[in-house]
Structures are given as C-alpha cells and as structure tokens.
Amino acid sequence: xxxxxxxxxxxxxxxxxxxxxxxxxxxxxxxxxxxxxxxxxxxxxxxxxxxxxxxxxxxxxxxxxxxxxxxxxxxxxxxxxxxxxxxxxxxxxxxxxxxxxxxxxxxxxxxxxxxxxxxxxxxxxxxxxxxxxxxxxxxxxxxxxxxxxxxxxxxxxxxxxxxxxxxxxxxxxxxxxxxxxxxxxxxxxxxxxxxxxxxxxxxxxxxxxxxxxxxxxxxxxxxxxxxxxxxxxxxxxxxxxxxxxxxxxxxxxxxxxxxxxxxxxxxxxxxxxxxxxxxxxxxxxxxxxxxxxxxxxxxxxxxxxxxxxxxxxxxxxxxxxxxxxxxxxxxxxxxxxxxxxxxxxxxxxxxxxxxxxxxxxxxxxxxxxxxxxxxxxxxxxxxxxxxxxxxxxxxxxxxxxxxxxxxxxxxxxxxxxxxxxxxxxxxxxxxxxxxxxxxxxxxxxxxxxxxxxxxxxxxxxxxxxxxxxxxxxxxxxxxxxxxxxxxxxxxxxxxxxxxxxxxxxxxxxx
Length: 510
Hints:
Layout: E1 3-6, H1 16-31, E2 35-38, H2 52-63, H3 86-99, E3 102-105, H4 109-121, H5 137-145, E4 151-154, E5 166-167, E6 171-172, E7 185-187, H6 195-205, E8 210-214, H7 221-230, E9 237-241, E10 244-245, H8 261-266, H9 271-280, H10 310-316, E11 327-328, H11 331-345, H12 349-366, H13 375-385, H14 395-398, H15 411-416, H16 422-438, H17 445-459, H18 463-474, H19 483-508
Parallel strand pairs: 1-2, 8-9, 10-11
Antiparallel strand pairs: 3-4, 4-7, 5-6
Helix pairs in contact: 1-10, 9-11, 12-13, 16-17, 16-18, 16-19, 17-19, 18-19
C-alpha cells in the first residue's frame, strides 16, 4: 500500500502552496488505494506560532482533504508531532556518529561566522573548514563530559555509494552536492534535529513510500539520499512539485499577500473551486521521468479551466502529467471555476439552501433594516441570479433591490431612463399596475413573462422602452435578472408598491 505524508511546520497559517502539496498527496494516495499522514514538523521552537496546527487542520477540513492519520486521528505511525519523537532522531544521529558518517562540532557561532567570511574571501564555495572533523575520540568525549555545546554534522568526505537521484516529476537529476553547505548540521545544540535528519528518519520509521513536496527541497535531495544510504535504509520515491507564483511572477509566500487558505474561506470562495484551481495549476502534458517520449496511449492533462470535483481529480490525477515549469496562479481562472462550481451546486435545492444560510448574516449586515434576510427568500434570490454570481458573497451587491427599496438617486438610475420620456414612463407603469391589480401575479416566471408581454402590447410602446421603464421602477439598476424574474421574487404586493412609488416620484417632478 502506498503511504504518503503532508508535513507542514506550525509557523503560521496554511497557504496556497501548502494546500496544493496536501492536495497532491491526497490525490496520489487515493488514486492508488493508499493513505496519507498529517505530520507536524515542529522542531524549531523559535518559529512556532500558537494556534497554527488548529488552523492547518481547519483549512484541511474546510477543503475536504481528510488525512488518514495524524493529530486527532491516531494510527500505527504516531507520534505525529516531531517534538514528541526527539529520542528517535538522537538514536539515528548516534548511528551516524558510530559509522563515521557524522561527527560532533564544537565551534561557536562567532567562530563559524568568521570561518565563512575567511573562506569566502579566498573564493572557496565551502561554508565550513571541517575544523572539528579530526578531533580524537578522547578529545570529543572529554568536551562532551565537560558540557561543551556541540552540534552533529554530516561528514561529506565519506559519501556512500548510491543510485543517481531520480525524481518522479523532474526525472534523472544532475549531481548537486556543490550547492549544499559543507557538512550540513543534522542535530542542533539544543538536541533538536534539523529538517534533513528528522524528515528522513520519520519517512523511514512511518513507512512512507512516496514523498511529494515543494520544489524548494529539490536541492536537498542529494543530502537526503546520502543519509538514507549512510544508514543503509531504502529511500521512498520522491516527487518535487513546481513552485506556485503570484500573478506578478514573484514567489508565493505566506509572508506576502492574501495566500492563506482560511482567508479564501472568509472571502466566500468555494473549497471545491479552490482545489480545482490549485490542482490544474501545474497539470501539463504527459511526460516520462526517464526522458522517453509520450506514446499515443498516454493520459493527457485536463484543460486548465476544466470543472472538476475532488473525486474527479482523484480519478484523473497523474504525476507524469505535472509540468516542470513554475506556475502562475491566475485569479481570473479561480473566478471562472468558482462560478461554475456554484452553478453546479444550485441544481440541488439542498445545496442552494445551504448557500442561503451561509450568506444570511452577510445580507443582514449589509441591510440591517430589511425584513427579507430569510434563508428561503435568499434562496429565491440566488436562483434568479444564477450565472451572474462569481462568488456567493456577491449576492447583496449584485441585487440590493431584492432586500431594500431601489435607489432612484443613483447615477445608474438617472442615466438609464434618459431615453424614456415622462409620458412613456408613466404609461408603462400605470398600465402594468392596472394589469397587476386585476390579475394575480404568480411567482411562475413563464406566466409572469406572458403577462408582461401582453401589457407591453397594450401600451403600444417599443419593447425596449417599456422594459427600461419597468427595470428602473423595480430595481433602479441597468443590469440584473429579467423583469419576470424580478417580479417573481418580489411578489405581487411589493411589485405594485414599487411601481406606484416610482410613479409618484416622477409625477411629483412634473
């Protein structure tokens, strides 16, 4: 069985890049009948943000990405906080020390800084001079007994033999040891591990078969494979995911812009649309990680604006179809996807009712004096606004006239009837009022449309002139649902009252 893990650090809110990593782990695990773990990498106490883990879990729950094991979901792989596994890392660090693949370094922070400066001045790419590598066992033991502070470093003079690094997305990789720091630190002086040691130990101990993580860790892959080989452990398969970029081409970061997942939730975006957007931002054409050209039978990636649910994403997901390119997240695509996910959901009355309950407080906040902020009424408004709503939170601004009286003093209202004379305006409204008072206006849109058509014929006005007059009286907005749809939501009493009010306003100015 495949087993994957999503391992965020509790240093802040879960951002879009992290959510996409969690999503791809979920898609791969479910596609292959496997499971995935939420593991909290909290080995740097100085960067810990209280409440961050709860925020990460809340974001995953909102998007429907349910992990199989992790905080709150015990399983055979715990503990799921790295800070609760410190003895394990120290055990592996001791194994590396015993085999000569690691050594203790007693150099102070000041000495290390001085060494780096000295090496840089000589044009060396080294970041450390290995001053502690050749200390005798007796000297090391004496300094440890004396309580001297030390770290454990990997010894890159004794690199083990291993296979060439291969990535499931980027394929065979060139040797990148030159880009690594000299003898990287594995265990810090506070006895907390660095990411390099903790991640490989946990992935082995938990039985992780595939590691899907961000491209920023690709330069560290040689070191991680060296550690596996030094410990005689079988490494998992690796897939590094290309970095997401902001629309301006800059790297997406939790420190820059509104990229928090919970921020998208609070702004009214649909979780299905957000996952759809992230999944397709990096889903390109099929390629073989070993460099072989694609065959005619290979799967192709979906279009970048394909409307897909989470089960559909699971069904179609293919690591070999991920691009190597860094991907810009286009907000316009999210708007498109969100709109169409909403339209899908509104085919179900229960889903529409859920949306109505969701935005009820927003409607009440925008229109505190309105008596029409009920879930049933809001659901009726949603139904006639379908196709116009990009974000469900747009409902109050798209059609305020459903909740409060029209604003006839707005620039929109004044400009829309410039082409309609006062006589034409009053004729249209008076005739409609007469018909409405005699004929019960039903909430059946097709029936209302028939009545409106008949009224227009009676007035003898051009249809455009007639409709402009009614739209002005009922909504005072140039755009919006059709006149029959507006009337069907307002109902006969409010429709007649608005027509009479508009008539009296115009008459008073004559």
